[in-house]
Specification:
Length: 689
């Protein structure tokens, strides 16, 4: 363990306002409000807090396919709300989006010149295979002057702006830009927009794999701001210069009819705008948004849903989850899901928020929290009803009432009628070429008295010659859906991963582990099946809570796990505790803030859990006794800012001591022993008199 020494000092060391919240000094995501700041920006150490951990996951079909896509444009109350806090916050009832498998592109929108998406959104989206775009917007007279400054001159001016936009996307690891110019332009400036878009698109594609540049329907080729509500000859030159066109919202079906010929083979690159608030003359918004989607899909176009946070902003907060599910459920038939195609596949269904924090069934903290980066892969929220009357049903809901790991779990309610033996629900669409051996795990519990059987099922497709070994087939009619064999005697090298397989765990949870041997197969779907108890002939209602699902390549569990290296403590700041705190607690208290840095290959982790142990002692008394580590928070990069940690003041002749521990959370989803965590100690003494 590294040891760092500090003498307590109360001198102020101001932090850069762009990167830290002025009230809490917590790290925040930021925007660039001016052209001068955009052109002056260069990456520095403070920027690395905002870099996404998650690369854009492989997905099927790829975004480059011509299947019509769904874009979500997140515009909420000016942006940079609770989601700006990179390390999370204690927000009560925050907005949360979780229907990721139904969308393809996420745009973070605000009215600042350069909107850099808060890193929590990028991490959550990329985990689901969803592309993330920032926004470059110029509005009103001021925006027009800004655009003239870089567009009306020679190519060096607009190329400098484009180069900075590419550098920002590359550094922060998001995927491109929505360009929205809503200011009138001179003929010289509008003439340079197409080469600006072409240059930006070309450079972005070179530096950011799969990068996208989209143009919003506002300025026309004459330089005037004239929303067309369609792709036509007045704005086609911009469409031809970038990756896609986002129409304004006040269209009717005749606009779509005309656009079919204009778009030609690029219909999927036309994103027809739908204002969910239903402002203006629109076909359908709010809970009638499906009417707009129906026409858009009928004509083969992509859809751009603007401000679906309407369900949060305008309806009762207490009914948010119900309204969110209703809104997206009405759109379901028009939103084909995409498939995730990489392993390991691990999710605890955590929404990135909760009313308490739980770690593998053990409660760690009570109180509201919100951390978008901590959102795990979310399922296909649906109601599954097999064909035919009286065939039973299964509904899925996210639920904050209980959790196995994180802040929430997946609640499944259903009915098995007397006529059938089981019902099943598809939770995930995958497209994974399966390695020779995989391990699967499911953590669940049944609510209330119930003997319903719970099983994990998978659908395997043929990738050439698919050979199934060691798996019993459910039925002759559905030979591609299989029920895996339970893993009973695990290899000793996998002891950490399978440590609780087949056991009753704390809180009533049960973990089941499975071994699957497949050759030449593509894993396509994950299902959970519920079967009636032996001998039962009555209708069986059930409520089941899923805490975790895992699909892991067996070989990945045999590789050694890296160690956290070189933990350091820097940027130390001290504050005296508030008078009321001094009255409540003895000995005297201090508030410690500092930066932790360490070294670890980020491709191996889901996140880091940061802990501390606090103690004081005198040399005569010997070292202080061990304290149970207290969780401080989660990190998704190799650094963490500790803010206002309460520690005891060091007495005369004594050192105060606080130890920081960095726990890596492997992508395969198991606990790393504490002896293998990274650690650093800070010893501090009172100021010299």
């Amino acid at each position: 363990e590294a040891v760092f020494r500090e003498v307590v000092s109360f001198t102020r060391d101001p932090l850069p306002a762009r990167y830290y919240d002025k009230d809490t000094t917590k790290p925040i995501s930021f925007y660039l409000p001016s052209l001068e700041e955009l052109l002056a920006w260069t990456p520095d150490a403070e920027d690395s807090f905002n870099v996404a951990l998650e690369p854009l996951k492989c997905r099927q079909p790829p975004l480059s396919s011509q299947r019509p896509r769904t874009l979500l444009c997140h515009d909420m109350m000016g942006g940079y709300l609770d989601d700006k806090f990179i390390q999370g916050s204690v927000a009560q009832n925050p907005y949360c989006f979780y229907h990721w498998q139904c969308i393809d592109i996420f745009v973070y929108f605000s009215h600042h010149l350069v909107t850099i998406p808060p890193v929590g959104w990028t991490n959550a989206a990329h985990r689901h295979g969803v592309c993330v775009l920032g926004t470059f917007i110029a509005e009103w007279k001021e925006g027009g002057q800004l655009c003239e400054a870089f567009l009306a001159g020679d190519e060096r001016s607009y190329q400098a702006v484009a180069d900075q936009l590419v550098l920002i996307a590359q550094f922060f690891r998001f995927d491109g830009w929505l360009i929205n110019i809503e200011s009138s332009l001179s003929l010289a400036a509008v003439g340079n927009v197409p080469p600006f878009l072409r240059y930006l698109s070309t450079q972005l594609c070179r530096q950011v794999p799969g990068g996208l540049v989209l143009w919003y329907d506002s300025v026309v080729s004459s330089g005037q701001v004239k929303w067309q509500n369609e792709l036509n000859e007045q704005n086609r030159i911009f469409f031809d210069s970038c990756d896609g066109f986002f129409t304004n919202y006040n269209w009717q079906e005749e606009h779509l009819d005309r656009m079919v010929a204009q778009a030609g083979e690029r219909r999927a690159d036309v994103y027809v705008g739908v204002d969910v608030f239903a402002r203006g003359n629109v076909v359908g918004g709010q809970f009638d948004t499906h009417k707009s989607l129906e026409l858009i899909r009928k004509h083969g176009f992509s859809a751009a849903l603007f401000a679906p946070g309407w369900v949060y902003e305008c309806l009762e907060k207490r009914d948010f989850f119900q309204n969110q599910d209703k809104f997206w459920g009405l759109l379901g038939r028009y939103l084909p899901p995409h498939s995730i195609c990489s392993l390991p596949f691990v999710t605890s269904f955590c929404l990135g928020m909760g009313t308490r924090r739980v770690c593998y069934g053990q409660e760690e903290a009570v109180g509201p929290w919100y951390h978008p980066s901590a959102q795990e892969i979310q399922p296909l929220f649906a109601e599954q009803r097999p064909e035919g009357d009286g065939q039973g049903w299964v509904k899925t809901h996210c639920c904050l009432a209980d959790a196995w790991n994180g802040g929430s779990s997946l609640l499944l309610r259903g009915v098995i009628p007397p006529e059938v033996g089981h019902v099943a629900v598809r939770l995930f669409s995958l497209h994974v070429l399966v390695p020779p051996k995989i391990f699967l795990s499911m953590v669940y519990k049944l609510e209330g008295p119930s003997d319903v059987g719970v099983a994990l099922e998978l659908t395997a497709g043929d990738a050439g010659s698919c050979h199934v070994g060691g798996i019993s087939t459910l039925s002759a009619e559905t030979s591609s859906r299989h029920s895996p064999r339970p893993l009973r005697v695990p290899p000793t090298k996998l002891a950490r991963w399978v440590g609780h397989c087949g056991q009753q765990l704390s809180g009533g949870w049960v973990q089941r582990c499975y071994e699957v041997n497949l050759q030449g197969c593509v894993l396509q779907d994950l299902w959970v099946s519920f079967s009636r108890p032996p001998g039962s002939r009555e209708q069986e209602a059930f409520v089941c809570r899923l805490g975790e699902l895992q699909v892991v390549d067996a070989n990945s569990l045999l590789r050694p796990l890296p160690r956290v290296q070189a933990v350091s403590v820097s940027r130390v700041r001290w504050q005296r505790a508030a008078p009321e705190e001094e009255e409540e607690q003895r000995p005297a208290r201090l508030r410690l803030s500092c930066a932790l840095h360490w070294s670890y290959p980020l491709s191996h982790v889901r996140c880091f859990r940061i802990h501390c142990c606090r103690a004081t002692g005198s040399p005569a008394e010997g070292p202080p006794g061990p304290e149970k580590p207290a969780l401080l928070g989660l990190a998704f990069v190799n650094q963490y800012r500790v803010v206002d940690l309460a520690v005891a003041a060091a007495g005369p002749g004594t050192d105060g001591r606080v130890e920081f521990l960095v726990e890596p959370v492997p992508r395969e989803g198991f606990l790393v022993p504490k002896a293998e965590w990274g650690r650093a100690a800070l010893l501090y003494s009172g100021p010299h008199t």
